[in-house]
Each structure stands twice: as C-alpha cells, then as structure tokens.
C-alpha cells in the first residue's frame, strides 16, 4: 500500500510532529482511516459507495471500459463478479497504482454453495441438519473463493421460505426459524473464519433484508405484506443470528415491507439494524434495487430513489449507479449530508482494512494458492460427504434400497447424465466439466447397469422412450433420475405447478407398466408435489442438486455405502392448493375436524402435507423410548432437562436426527401448534442405544408479545421428542 502510505504520511506530517512510524506497517486504526477520508473528494467518497459488475466472456473475465476509467478516477471503489487471482490482481493494480489515492477495490461474488468445488444447494445442505458440515462447506467455499481473488461473498441467504413455488427456496435453509437461525450463524462463521485479516477468509453478507421469502403467491420480487409480529418472530431471527455470529455486511431485499421498499426502509435499516442491533458493518443494496423504487411507485425518479435509500441508511449501491449519478448533486442541494457519506465510507474502508487490503491489496491474488486449493482432493471429499448427508430417503417400500451390486440396474433419465443440472442455481464459477454425474459414477465404479436417456427434461418428444423401456425390461430394478433442470429454481424461477415435468412422468408411467421396482432419484431445487410418485414408486431418494460430487454421493446412498440420514428442512405438500403449508402453523379457532363441516379444511385435499418438515427415512430402524422431563412445574429461571433413549433396532449403522418440539398452549399472541426447539444428530451401530438429553432454558419459552418484547408467559407447555415434526407432544410442563 505504498501510495496510500505516502499520501497518509504527508498528511500526518502536516498535522503532527509526533509521528509514530511503526503504525504504517500495521493495519490502519480509526484515526488513520479518518485522515484518508479527509483527503477524499466527494466523487472519491461516492466511489467507495459504488459497486459495479465485471462481465464474463467465453475467453475470460472482462470489464466495461468506462468502469475501468471509473476505477482509475476513484469513482468505482468495489467490483463484483470479477474473479480469479490473476484477473483481480490486474484490476486491483488499476485501483492501487492508477487512481489518485490508491484505495484498494473490494471484490464481491455470489459464493452461495461453493466457489469451484460446488456443494449441494443450501436447501439441501440444511437437510443434513449438520451444523459442523455446513460450516465446513462455507469454510471451504471461502478458502477457494479467496484463492480466486475474492474478498466478499453475497451469502448466506437467510430468508425463511414457506412457499415452495418461490424458486429461491433453493438458496436458503427452508421454513424453520430455529434451524434457519442456527445455519445462518454456522455459514457466517464458515465464511468469515476466526480472523478477517487472514487471507483465506471472506466478508459474509446476510441477505435479503428482510422478509423477501414472504413474496405473495411465491412469485419472485412480489409484494410482501406481513405483520410486524411475523417479521420479528419468523423473518428476522436468522438475520439476528448472522449478526450475532459477526456478519460483516447486510444486503437489502427487492420487496417492500409495510409499503416501503426494503432499500429505503428506515424501520429495517435504522431502527432495527443500526438501532436495536447496533450493526457496525455496511449495507449493500440488491442489484439495482434502489432504481426499482421508481417502478414500485415509491420514488418519482432515480434521483429521489438515491436520496431515500441513502438517507434510510443504505451504504452501497449495487450496479444501479444512482449514488454515482446523483449523490453529489444531492449533497450540493443539502438533501444528503457529507457527514452521513463519511460515515458510510468509513464503514466500507474499515472492512477493507479488516481484510488486510491496506497492508497488502494483492494478498488475495496468490496464483500458487489458487492452484493448490481449488478443487483439491480434500475439498471434493468434503463435498461428497455433505452431499450424501443431504440426501433424504422419502420412500423405501419392501427395503428396495439399498441396491446390491449383483442386481442388474436400468439407469434411466437425462438427469443421470446432465452435469450442469447437478450444480443448481448460483453455482459460482463451478463448471459442469468438474461434475461427476450419476452415469459417470456408475460407469467408473463398474456397476452392473445399462443406461438410457429416456427423454429430455421438458418437451414432448417421446422417441427415446422405447430404448429406455427395452433396457428396463432386462433389469432387476430401475433407477430413474428425474426432476428439475437447474434453471427451474433459483432467482426468477417461480413455478405455479411444482411437479416433475410431464414428459418425465410419461416416461415413468411407461416404465411402471413393466411392474419392476422403480427407484426415483429426485434432482430439484424445491419441494415437489409427489403424491402419485409416493404411491407408485418402490423408493424415492431426494438428492436435490448435490453439486460437483453428485453422482458419487447418489451412488453411495443407492448402494448403501452411506445410510441416508437427511431430514426435510421444508414441508412437501400433497398439492399446490395447500400452499402455504408448513409445520408450525397456528391452530385457528376451528381446527380441522373431518367430521365437522365448519372447520378449517379443504373439501378436495387433506390438510396434512405429503412429507412433513423434519421427515426422512433410514436403511435401519430407530426406536424411541418414552421421553422424560425432570420437572413438571417451573419458575421463570428454571431450565428443563429432557431425555429419551434411541435404539438402532435394524441391521445397519446410521445417523438419526432427534428432534424436540414444543407448543405453548395459551399466549397473548397465539402460538403455533409446534415449534422446533432443539435437535441432536446421533450415530448408532446396529443393536446400540443412546440416551439423548436436551436442556430447554427459560429463553426457549419466549415469544414476541404485542409490544414486540420477548417474554415467556405463565401457563402450560407441551413437549415431544421424535424424528420428524409429526411427533406427538405428550409431556406437559407448567410455567408458574
Ligand atoms: C440477487 C442477489 C445477488 C445479486 C448479485 C441479485 O439479483 O437477488 O441475491 O447477490 O443479484 O449477483
């Protein structure tokens, strides 16, 4: 940071005669950052509040010439979508060597579930219910991404999502506040590590603040209209958990809340984030979300949008160029204060400093490290491990699975041979050429099988059916890999009908006519409606979009190398008409009673989902004893100790996720019929038993009252322990 230090030195010499030279070799303190801000022109300050994208051509990364000029003139202080050690170093040199003050760029990227070694989509990882593995996956993603020149990831996405039509359910941890909050913290710790100044840690970004997952009708970018209570109780906790884990940045969401777009929402940004939560990092907009306030009908033009957003506390403008275009003018008019600009600039510079960029702006561009870390054997092994722990066994009639290597298998389906679709949405710079497909894994492991594509993923061409049926005729069992291609979930990928595309179902029906056991391996980024499949398939494996090591993880589970242990982090409906359907709904004043007409139900479909939250089978069987609790009456400061004995009564070893649910029977704000309060993932050899204990503290009994204060109200609580949200709550405790 030679140039910056020379400039700083000149400044300090003019201000003080008592210079401490040693500070120049260290990270910058607040005073030094303030001195730098004092040297900046208003344009340079606004540059630090501006984030522009780099592009990617087939030949490699590129950047628009005018953005390069902006970097040179200090008008673009941050770049996203630029990556690789060499390219980012090149851009960094422009900022450091060719701009007046030489302030280093911050490089951001959507490293959502891996950088080059791609892990399962976040929803799938959540199905592992394994916080250590999830943290490890984020850690590896950070190691690879920082080796690729990156400083900042736009992750974790911590939006609670209860509408499976919304394509972005793929990016989060599902429907549950408790599980989602724990995972949010684990991901932040994974990305940011213990020390931001270490060159293998990234700034994380909790997004999308807030309530983006509540888009009406599950249509992406749609209006959100929820109560303040729902905001605090359901949508904010994972953000708070990310904050408690030290998340460095937040990203605003595209939606409005209470009629005010999140990017100008002072309640969210000032009252909650900076006020109640005392957040010290910086807030970035989503991609052009400030500009979009014009279309929302909130701002009359982009100039006003810039003013509203900035004055609401939004520090950095992603790609919209509205700060770039209008902030100076707004300052000149006295509508935006220079002090506020300095505060935002300082937040950003402090994080650049925390990353060590002022000491060495090129420390994240280490080509040797890039070569050795990315896609290393170790990273791929970890990706395989988490992918197989994310698989959920939904059906397994007559112990159809695991397969035996002596059985002749017909492997069918274009998704068995479609590497790109294994990666899911937001697959970073992951490449299909690095993916092990199911077909490749079967081939490499010399399984006893024949493959036929059978059909495309969509469309109406049935010409490949015959070959698939002919091959299936010769087989003992059929493994059909079916579901969604990667663009059918993720951003801007809402679906009204969340089913396996029709052409694949037609193929399935042709195969079913052979009366052979069919194992359906599902590749998808969201819950699907699978009522027909659940009745007609011998087995169903929910493999999601498992990432780079997809085929190996799937084969491990199919052949019993790994005994499936995943549990659904989101409810699978019987029918789209049930949506929203999630386990911790309220009871209503007329709870469903099939014999009473005037109760809360549908005439044509059941209320209960097909597969509930927390559900997932195993190749072994687990028996749960009667759970017990040490007290039946407690005071406000007592903890409860629960225990249950779980036994592996089957013939193979396996993991089980033991889940504890609670219901607060009466509340001044009505309480859900069930709330997950704790869980433990255990491993048991066949014939073994383990006592599993849980402590529930007075804090766990709390909820937000009508003043949005968290309290526990006296009264009765029911608890139950089991292996899905379907558990019966049969332990009563009274809070006095
Ligand atoms: C998405 C964000 C993402 C950003 C940058 C937006 O469209 O909503 O989640 O981080 O693009 O790629």
Task: Describe the fold and architecture.
- It contains 23 helices and 29 strands.
- The protein is an alpha/beta fold and 736 residues long.
- The chain has 3 domains: 6-61 and 75-369, Alpha-Beta Barrel (TIM Barrel), CATH 3.20.20; 388-561, Glycoside hydrolase family 3 C-terminal domain (Rossmann fold); 622-735, Immunoglobulins (Immunoglobulin-like), CATH 2.60.40.
- It has a 6-stranded mixed sheet with strand order 13-18-17-16-14-15, with helices on both faces. A 5-stranded parallel sheet has the order 6-5-4-1-12.
- Strand 17, helix 22 and strand 18 form a beta-alpha-beta unit.
- Beta-D-glucopyranose (BGC) binds next to loops.
CA-CA gap between termini: 62 Å
Bound molecules: beta-D-glucopyranose
Note poorly predicted spans.
11-26
CATH superfamily of the largest domain: Glycoside hydrolase, family 3, N-terminal domain
Assembly type = single chain
Measured by DSSP, the beta-strand proportion falls in 15-25%
How many beta strands in the DSSP annotation? Answer: 29
- Calculate Rg over CA atoms: 27 Å
Q: What structural class results from the helix and strand content?
A: alpha/beta
Reported by name, the CATH topology of the largest domain is TIM Barrel
Sheet with most strands: strand arrangement: 13-18-17-16-14-15
Shape: globular
Instruction: Give the integer mean of the pLDDT values.
Output: 95
- Considering DSSP H and I runs of 4 or more, what fraction of the residues is helical? 25-40%
């Amino acid at each position: 940071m030679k140039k910056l230090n020379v400039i700083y030195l000149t400044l300090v010499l003019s201000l003080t005669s008592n210079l401490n030279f040693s500070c120049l070799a260290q990270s910058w303190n607040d005073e030094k950052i303030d001195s730098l801000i004092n040297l900046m022109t208003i344009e340079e300050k606004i540059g630090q509040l501006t984030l522009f994208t780099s592009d990617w051509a087939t030949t490699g990364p590129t950047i628009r010439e005018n953005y390069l000029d902006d970097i040179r003139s200090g008008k673009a202080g941050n770049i996203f979508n630029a990556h690789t050690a060499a390219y980012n170093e090149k851009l960094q040199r422009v900022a450091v060597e060719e701009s007046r003050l030489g302030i280093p760029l911050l490089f951001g990227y959507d490293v959502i579930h891996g950088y080059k070694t791609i892990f399962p989509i976040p929803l799938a990882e959540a199905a592992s219910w394994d916080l250590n593995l999830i943290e490890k996956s984020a850690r590896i993603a950070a190691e690879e991404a920082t080796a690729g020149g990156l400083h900042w990831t736009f992750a974790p996405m911590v939006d609670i999502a209860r509408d499976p039509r919304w394509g972005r359910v793929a990016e989060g941890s599902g429907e549950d506040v408790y599980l989602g909050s724990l995972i949010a913290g684990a991901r932040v710790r994974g990305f940011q590590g213990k020390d931001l100044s270490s060159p293998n840690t990234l700034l994380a970004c909790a997004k999308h603040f807030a309530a983006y997952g509540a888009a009406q009708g599950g249509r992406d970018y749609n209006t959100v209209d929820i109560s303040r209570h729902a905001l605090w109780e359901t949508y904010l906790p994972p953000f708070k958990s990310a904050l408690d884990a030290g998340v460095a940045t937040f990203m605003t969401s595209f939606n409005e809340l209470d009629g005010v777009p999140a990017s100008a929402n002072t309640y969210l940004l000032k009252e909650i984030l900076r006020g109640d939560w005392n957040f010290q990092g910086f807030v970035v907009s989503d991609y052009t979300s400030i500009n979009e306030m014009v279309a929302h009908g909130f701002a009359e033009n982009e100039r006003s949008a810039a003013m509203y957003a900035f004055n609401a506390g939004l520090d950095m403008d992603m790609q919209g160029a509205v700060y770039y275009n209008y902030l100076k003018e707004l300052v000149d008019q006295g509508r935006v204060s220079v002090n506020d600009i300095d505060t935002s600039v300082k937040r950003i510079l402090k994080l650049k400093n925390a990353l060590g960029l002022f000491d060495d702006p090129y420390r994240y561009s280490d080509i040797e490290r890039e070569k050795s870390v990315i896609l290393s054997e170790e990273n791929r092994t970890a990706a395989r491990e988490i992918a197989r722990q994310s698989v959920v066994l939904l059906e397994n009639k007559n112990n159809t699975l695991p397969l035996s290597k002596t059985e002749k298998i017909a492997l069918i389906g274009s998704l068995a041979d479609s590497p790109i679709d294994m990666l899911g949405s937001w697959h970073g710079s992951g490449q299909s050429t690095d993916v092990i497909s199911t077909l490749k894994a079967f081939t490499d492991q010399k399984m006893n099988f024949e493959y036929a594509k059978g059909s495309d993923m969509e469309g109406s061409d049935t010409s490949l059916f015959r070959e698939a049926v002919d091959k299936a005729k010769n087989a003992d069992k059929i493994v059909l890999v079916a579901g969604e291609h990667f663009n059918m979930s993720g951003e801007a990928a809402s679906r009204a009908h969340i089913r396996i595309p029709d052409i694949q179902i037609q193929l399935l029906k042709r195969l079913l006519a052979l009366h052979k056991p069919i194992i359906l391996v599902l590749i998808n980024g969201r819950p699907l409606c699978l009522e027909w499949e659940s009745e007609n398939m011998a087995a169903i494996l929910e493999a999601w979009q498992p990432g780079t090591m997809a085929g190996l993880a799937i084969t491990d589970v199919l052949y019993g190398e790994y005994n499936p242990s995943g549990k659904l982090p989101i409810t699978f409906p019987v029918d789209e008409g049930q949506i929203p359907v999630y386990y911790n709904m309220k009871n209503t004043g007329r709870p469903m009673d099939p014999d009473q007409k005037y109760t809360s139900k549908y005439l044509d479909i059941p209320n209960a989902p097909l597969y509930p939250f927390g559900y997932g089978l195993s190749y072994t069987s687990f028996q749960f004893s009667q759970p017990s609790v040490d007290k039946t009456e407690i005071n406000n400061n007592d903890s409860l100790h629960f225990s249950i004995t779980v036994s592996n009564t089957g013939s193979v070893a396996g993991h089980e996720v033991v889940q504890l649910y609670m219901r607060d029977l009466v509340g001044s704000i009505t309480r859900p019929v069930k709330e997950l309060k704790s869980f433990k993932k255990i491993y048991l050899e066949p014939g073994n038993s383990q006592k599993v204990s849980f402590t529930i503290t007075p804090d766990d009994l709390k909820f937000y009252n009508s003043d949005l204060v968290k309290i526990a109200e006296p009264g009765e609580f029911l608890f139950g322990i089991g292996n899905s949200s379907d558990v019966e709550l049969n332990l009563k405790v009274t809070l006095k």
